[in-house]
Design brief:
By secondary structure, the protein is of the alpha/beta class. Helices cover 40% and strands 21% of the residues. The strands form five sheets. It has a five-stranded mixed beta sheet with strand order 4-1-5-14-6, with helices on both faces. A three-stranded antiparallel beta sheet has the order 11-8-12. Helix 2 packs across helix 8. The protein is globular and about 55 Å long. It starts with a helix and ends in a 7-residue tail after the last helix. InterPro entries: Solute-binding_3/MltF_N (IPR001638). It comes from Fructilactobacillus carniphilus. Keywords: Signal.
């Protein structure tokens, strides 16, 4: 009888250990690893330099994972399949200039924002677009499903699909569209390598389009992961890491409200 109770006790302990392991593993796709989804083609957020993945969000994700006690692993994919990859658990979180909006908040969980991005209109210097009101009815180049696409529609524009930032600039140059709604940081970075461009920009008043809150996006089930990520990013903001990374890649601080 004594032996029987010992076996029952051991089985119970084993079940508890397995349950604990299962809970720990459930926090990330792979134990001790934070798998991060991103495009890797949107400089300076994430891009390749001499074949190596780098950029603001790459460094940020590495530092965030480190503070969470996890090893970062990056999965690059096109914008069109980025959110689908999160739904199918190809990665734990997306660091890809993801703006919080109502539709995404219904389906996904966002950690603490790390960027507050103002929207601009990029157009030709001698073009007819002089204010956001001039976009009404005009074709603009935007990534399908992006917040820029949504903002362009709010302004009455007609968004045309563009797979990448460079493509959007080419579409304006070629006269295929009148403009693009995008982030000031992305244009300023692009302009450094295109000093002779005749493209320019103006800011959209925040009364018309609010500054976007950019944050890590993950599945609804990852409440524990979000709590740890919140803590890590808040510590990065407090000790100046966020500002330092912003100055490194953008030359200005875009991490404050």
């Amino acid at each position: 009888m004594k032996k029987k109770w010992s076996l029952i006790l051991m089985a119970g302990l084993a079940a508890l250990v397995l349950a604990a392991c299962g809970q720990k593993q459930a926090e990330t796709k792979t134990p001790h690893v934070l798998t991060v989804g991103l495009e890797g083609t949107y400089a300076p957020y994430s891009y390749r330099q001499n074949g190596k993945l780098t950029g603001f969000e790459v460094d940020l994700a590495k530092e965030t994972a480190k503070r969470m006690g996890l090893k970062p692993k990056f999965v690059t994919t096109g914008w069109d399949s980025l959110i689908a990859g999160l739904n199918s658990n190809d990665y734990d979180v997306v660091f890809n200039n993801m703006a919080e909006n109502t539709d995404r908040q219904k389906k996904f969980r966002f950690a603490t924002p790390y960027v507050y991005s103002k929207s601009i209109v990029i157009t030709k210097k001698d073009g007819a677009i002089k204010s956001a009101k001039d976009l009404k009815g005009k074709k603009v180049a935007e990534g399908t499903g992006t917040d820029n696409w949504n903002n362009a529609k709010k302004l009455g524009a007609n968004p045309i699909t563009s797979p990448a930032f460079q493509t959007s600039m080419d579409m304006i140059d070629q006269g295929r569209v009148a403009a693009a709604v995008n982030s000031r940081e992305a244009f300023e970075y692009w302009k450094k390598s295109h000093p002779d461009t005749d493209l320019t920009y103006f800011e959209i008043p925040t009364s018309e389009v609010k500054a976007s809150k950019i944050a890590p996006m993950m599945n609804k089930k990852n409440a524990k992961l979000q709590a740890k990520m919140d803590k890590a990013i808040q510590s990065e903001r407090k000790d100046g890491t966020l500002k330092r990374l912003s100055m490194k890649y953008f030359g200005t601080n875009i991490t404050d409200k």
